Each structure stands twice: as structure tokens, then as C-alpha cells.
Amino acid sequence: MFRRQGLRVAAAACCAAVFLATPALAGNDGPGAPGAGDDYFPGYGNGGYDVSHYDIQLRYQPNDDFLSGTTTIVAKPTQNLTAFNLDFALNVKSVRVNGKPAEVKHDGLELTVTPQETLPEGSLATFVVEYDGVPSTVEVGGVNPWIRTADGALAIGQPEISSWWFPGNDHPRDKATFDIAVAVPDGTEVLSNGVNTGTSSLAGWTTWKWRTTKPTASYLAFLALGQYEISTKTGANGQPFVTAYSDQLGELEGAAKASVERTPEVVEFLSGLFGEYPFEAQGGVVSSEGMNFALENQTRPTYSHKFFSRGANTSVVVHENAHQWFGDSVSVDTWRNIWLNEGFASYSEWLWSEKQGTGTAQELFDHYYSATPADDPFWQVLPGDPGAENVFHDAVYDRGAMTLHALRNVIGDQALVDITRTWVSEKRYSTGTIEQFIELAEQKSGKQLDEFFKAWLFTPGKPAVGEATGVPQSALLASATPPPAVAEIDATHERAHAH
Predict the structure, then answer these.
(1) Do residues 222 and 155 make contact, with C-beta atoms less than 8 angstroms apart?
(2) Which CATH class is domain 1-143+165-183+210-216?
(3) Which DSSP category does 222 fall into?
(4) CATH node for 331-496
């Protein structure tokens, strides 16, 4: 998750305007809302329709970063829709709604489309958008998440990226399936989500086709375009396991492969904790430039080469694959709820360390608790409501993981397992809130946990030692020598905060 300070400041500044645009009531004729109602990022997403599928057809030239494409969106209006918005940054050539040309107005990331006829609530609707542009040159509100590289590009980012390569409803609440086809000059590789359904060449161009059949949030759809060594093997559960390593990794290639090739083992470990892996494929992509973060792209996390500069790093592989359950399958209902993603992904690293014998979860908890003084600004950021400017703050990750371990101390191992497995099962392919998680935790544990979660997620300051907070005396007596896993975990979080 990237540290995009310009975006955070801009988003915070516009929070006051969150509900100035009110969605039309279902069943009434009217335009859809230009935002999904997320108080951290009010311009993200749209109201008035639900997308079920994106068909994205692209042509990309690495030499000049020129992208042209046609995206067909299959959607269902949730009201009688007289106009609607799409989130998009590139130049729009035309829009057709149900086969007919539509009127278009474009302002920043907001593409307002007025069809010739009102779209009835519940009907089948198709939006076909033709467009082009040079994504690396398009900046909106001081932000450009598109990453141009020497041999291509990376369309990878959070919480925004899709608007720089396909139009859509850019918020985790509106998930869809994807078909993605990209034509590139022969010799260039294309990676995306799911399963490769075909590759064909004609007149010096090769078209790569990828399909993901499980509901996917827009920011988790990705592209990696360039020179890669691609391998397809059999992973956990007999699923396709697709990896891609940049041809330019040099001396880091061995460490990268020693880490990412353990993904099937990691998926098996995490499945034992959380339940069945939720998607149809597994894998990973390692870039050689342009990124200093990792991102949990659905079915295929992408890693910066920098994670492997000190050798193999399985912690980041665990972190990103834990997100397949927490963040990808169960996504945030609004971005305020980011702790549900990062707390579980970070705590998964602690559980992996426990399995590997490089530090128990309690030893890691004790280290992070004792090593961070009470007056450290770290304790002033609230994981349960960090603010738009702190969505990817250290506290969301590390205090977030500490919260889960403290909860384990309060309610016991089996109750935490029951809560976690029920959460990912009942919320599969949808979204969740912290309040819903707390309600489930109380239901499964039989304990009243409001004060516990208030102390850990919603109150500034360092939670005190005690049974109610789940902080044992051992946290005050932690060894000055941290467990071996800390170096790898810290290196992971140092960069993974941008995912």
C-alpha cells in the first residue's frame, strides 16, 4: 500500500464534502451518486448500479507507454438510472450504453454518462467505453499511481489504480469478475489475475488473455507488462501456480525465487488457519524497478525486488497471501476498516514465525510492546479509525497485529480460530466492518469485548498491562534481543505499508 501523501492530504481535505451528493432513492428516476459514500475517499466509487463483469481489451506499446482500449461493463442498475458515473482518468473517445451512443462529461476522475434512455432498476445494462492515452503522463489531484518501467509498466496500486487503465466503479463494495486481454509487441510478457486463457500472435503483436472468475475489487485487478520469466506449475489444492520474475533481477533472482516459490506451502499453512483458499489460482510477480512495496493483487501478489535485497523473505509472501482472505475475499466496506486487512496479514507473519521456530507470537507481541515507549507517536494513531492520511501507518500493521494477539490472550486460541473461520466464511466475496467483527467476536467468545477493542483500536495511548487488555506481565520483561523473525517482519512492513 503506497505512501501517496498527495492523495492522503487531498482526500482528507475533501472529507467535508462526503455526503453533498446524495444517491437517488431506489425506484425513483434520477442519476447515480458520483461516490460510494466512503468518508475517507468520498470520490471513489459510484452509486446507482452494480457491476458484475468487466471485459477489458487493450493494446499497449512499451516504447512510448501508449495505451488504447475498449472496456465493456456488464451492470445492473439499482434504481431507475437517468445518468451514472464511472471512475476514469484517460482520454475517452466514445461511450455506448446498451448499444446506443451516450452523452459524456469528463472532470478529473469523474466520467458522467447520460444514456439516451433511462435504465430500469434491475435490468441488464452494458456500458462500452473506448479510450486511449499515456497513463504515466496523466495526473489527477497530484496523484499518478501508474508505474512506467524501462521495458513496460506496472498497473499496481492501492487504494487507486484502475482508473488509469480501465473505467469502472472503483470501490471494494462493487466487486466483479474480469476478462483481460492485452496486445503487446512480440517478446513482451503480460501478467494479470486468475488463469491464462490463451496467448496468440499476429503481425508482430502478441495478445495475452487472463480471466478471474471470482468477485474482485477494482484495485486488485492488475497488469505487469515487460520482460519476465513466466512459469506455470501446480500449486496448493492442485490449482495453477503462476510466477513471473523480471529478467533484470540480477543477483536478487535467487532470493526472490527462494521466497515466492514457497507460495504453495504458505497457502497450505494459511488454509489450515483460515479455511479453504478462496480463489482459482495462486502465484506471484517480482518486479525489478518502479516499486518499493508489495500488493496483494487477487491470485497473484506483486513484490518489489527490494524485499529480497538481504536474502530470502518469506514473511512478505505470508503477508500478501494472507490478504487473499483478508482484503481480497473479505474486503473493507469502507477504507476506515483497513485494520481488518492489515491486522490479520501482519499477525499471520507472527503465526508463520511461530511455526518456523523464529519467535512465538507472544515473544513478538512482547517485543513490539516493550520496544515502543508510551510517549511514542505510534500509540496516537488509532487502527480502528486512523484517518485518510494514516491508512497505511505502522500502527495499523503492528498495533493491528498486537490487537489480535491480545484478543487471543483474552478469549483463548479456539475462540479466535472460530471467529476467524466464521468471518472469512460468512463474508466471503463481500465486505465487512470492524463493528461487525466485534459483534462476531463477542458472539463466538461469549465475552463482552467493547472495552477491549476500545482500548486497542479506538483510544490513543499504549494499552495498559492487565487481563482486560490481554497484555501480560511478560510484555514488560521482554528481552533486549528481539526474536529472529523481527528483522524480516520489520523489513516487510517497512515497504509493505505501501500496499
Answers:
(1) yes
(2) mainly beta
(3) -
(4) 1.10.390.10
- Helical axes 263-274 vs 413-426, angle rounded to 10°: 100
pTM (2 decimals)? 0.92
Q: Give the residue carrying C-alpha cell 450504453.
A: 97
What region, left, alpha or beta, does residue 255 occupy, with left being phi > 0 and alpha being psi -120 to 50 degrees? alpha
Closest alpha carbon to 497 in 419, 405, 416, 381: 381
Q: What are the φ/ψ torsions at residue 228 (nearest 5 degrees)?
A: -135, 150
**Distance from first CA to last CA of the chain, Å, rounded?**
2
Taking Cα atoms as reference points, which of 150, 174, 172, 145 lies closest to residue 160?
A: 145
- The Cβ of residue 474 has, within 10 Å, a number of other Cβ atoms equal to 14
Whether the CB-CB separation of 223 and 244 falls below 8 Å is answered with no
How would you write the pLDDT of the chain (499 residues) with one tens digit per residue? 433 333 333 333 333 333 333 343 444 799 999 999 999 999 999 999 999 999 999 999 999 999 999 999 999 999 999 999 999 999 999 999 999 999 999 999 999 999 999 999 999 999 999 999 999 999 999 999 999 999 999 999 999 999 999 999 999 999 999 999 999 999 999 999 999 999 999 999 999 999 999 999 999 999 999 999 999 999 999 999 999 999 999 999 999 999 999 999 999 999 999 999 999 999 999 999 999 999 999 999 999 999 999 999 999 999 999 999 999 999 999 999 999 999 999 999 999 999 999 999 999 999 999 999 999 999 999 999 999 999 999 999 999 999 999 999 999 999 999 999 999 999 999 999 999 999 999 999 999 999 999 999 999 999 999 999 999 998 887 766 777 777 777 777 654 444 4
Pairwise CA distance, residues 21 & 434, whole Å:
26
**H or E element that contains 224:** strand 223-226
Q: Give me the phi and psi of 243, to 5 degrees please.
A: -125, 155
Domain locations in the chain?
1-143+165-183+210-216, 331-496
